[in-house]
């Protein structure tokens, strides 16, 4: 079996399926998506051994995680799920050689109403499967981050999906969800959205290079100050643009200037390093305005949210990203994701 196992927000399976279909067609890949609304995952099946490389996780907007599917096991006997699983893994990887084929094991379940009750099974089964894999020479004695990772996803007690992942090219968190905790001083829960965006959309080198103390930023529509607070914690000097009030402690750092102005009309007097924006507005209007910031050279890097309609969300996403790119009128590196802390929206990172 060749395919992708992709996790997503429950309810967005049709949008991820549409995205996978379009991206596969653009890449000349013949395949089809299998999805049911509310399940929290999508399968994309295709006769292509390099599917993960041709449809990489970083490029998928609605996928929290994307791993290479190699087996689907149905009607598993609850008295012995391990034996058929070992047989499927050996069939996919061949007889173990000097080195085991996998460096780590993750046993997961979809983040959905049906999947969450399987968390206990996933935890206990992982504890049983791990020594069985090591005994057969299929799993390293300790986690080896340079070796492929084995994923076992239970979608029911008798139904499991097996997949492999390149740790360097997939999300480094189970289910693709970074475990973030809201800081007691955060002005709002929206702070988690920017924190997750910086973790998911920037790589390690970009976080080191692009988030240095003393850099300058603007937060459009800043109130009550969640995103401004995150930037200030990185040492950036922030112009917080909003007619509404900020939480008083956001200003205590001395790095924040609150300017009472309309985020869609305000423009900086000199170029800034960063612009961030989480305003509730029509996505096409936000995309156009963000493009104008890059076109006019007002910032070099940006993170912004696009609030999506209830239907045809992938189509709207494509239109808005194309509008943003066309308005900017210059080469940009663009990454977009529907993050765990997003709801009816996607988050976009762009850098000139």
UniProtKB/TrEMBL annotation:
Instruction: List cellular component terms (GO).
Output: cytoplasm
Q: What is its main location?
A: cytoplasm
Residue numbers binding S-adenosyl-L-methionine:
190, 223-226, 242, 262, 278
Name the domain of life. Bacteria
- EC assignment: 2.1.1.186
Q: Which reaction does it catalyse?
A: cytidine(2498) in 23S rRNA + S-adenosyl-L-methionine = 2'-O-methylcytidine(2498) in 23S rRNA + S-adenosyl-L-homocysteine + H(+)
Q: What InterPro entries does the annotation carry? A: RlmM_FDX, RlmM_THUMP-like, RNA_MeTrfase_FtsJ_dom, rRNA_MeTrfase_M, SAM-dependent_MTases_sf
Which residue intervals define the domain Ribosomal RNA large subunit methyltransferase M THUMP-like in the entry? Answer: 80-162
> What this chain does, per the record?
Catalyzes the 2'-O-methylation at nucleotide C2498 in 23S rRNA.
Q: What is this protein called?
A: Ribosomal RNA large subunit methyltransferase M
The species is: Luteimonas marina
Lineage in the entry? Bacteria, Pseudomonadati, Pseudomonadota, Gammaproteobacteria, Lysobacterales
């Amino acid at each position: 079996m060749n395919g992708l196992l992709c996790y997503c927000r429950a309810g967005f399976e049709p949008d991820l399926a549409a995205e996978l279909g379009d991206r596969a067609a653009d890449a000349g890949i013949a395949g089809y998506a299998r999805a049911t609304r509310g399940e929290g995952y999508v399968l994309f099946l295709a006769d292509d051994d390099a599917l993960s490389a041709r449809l990489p996780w970083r490029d998928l907007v609605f996928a929290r995680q994307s791993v290479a599917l190699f087996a689907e096991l149905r009607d598993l006997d609850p008295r012995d799920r391990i034996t058929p699983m070992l047989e499927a893994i050996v069939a996919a990887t061949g007889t173990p050689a000097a080195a085991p084929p996998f460096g780590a094991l993750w046993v997961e379940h979809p983040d959905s109403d049906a999947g969450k009750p399987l968390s206990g099974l996933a935890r206990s089964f992982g504890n049983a499967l791990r020594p069985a894999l090591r005994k057969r020479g299929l799993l390293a004695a300790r986690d080896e981050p340079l070796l492929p990772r084995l994923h076992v996803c239970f979608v029911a007690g008798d139904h499991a999906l097996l997949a492999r992942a390149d740790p360097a090219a997939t999300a480094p968190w189970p289910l693709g969800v970074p475990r973030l905790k809201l800081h007691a001083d955060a002005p709002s829960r929206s702070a988690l959205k920017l924190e997750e965006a910086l973790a998911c959309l920037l790589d390690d080198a970009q976080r080191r290079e692009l988030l240095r103390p003393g850099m300058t930023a603007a937060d459009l529509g800043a109130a009550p100050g969640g995103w401004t607070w995150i930037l200030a914690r990185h040492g950036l000097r922030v112009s917080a643009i909003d007619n509404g009030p900020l939480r008083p402690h956001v200003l205590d750092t001395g790095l924040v200037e609150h300017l009472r102005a309309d985020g869609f009309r305000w423009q900086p007097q000199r170029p800034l390093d960063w612009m961030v924006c989480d305003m509730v507005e029509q996505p096409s209007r936000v995309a156009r305005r963000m493009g104008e910031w890059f076109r006019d050279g007002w910032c070099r890097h940006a993170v912004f949210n696009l609030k999506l309609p209830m239907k045809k969300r992938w189509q709207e996403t494509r239109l808005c990203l194309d509008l943003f790119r066309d308005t900017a009128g210059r080469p940009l590196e663009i990454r977009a994701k529907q993050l765990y802390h997003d709801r009816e929206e996607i988050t976009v990172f762009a850098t000139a």
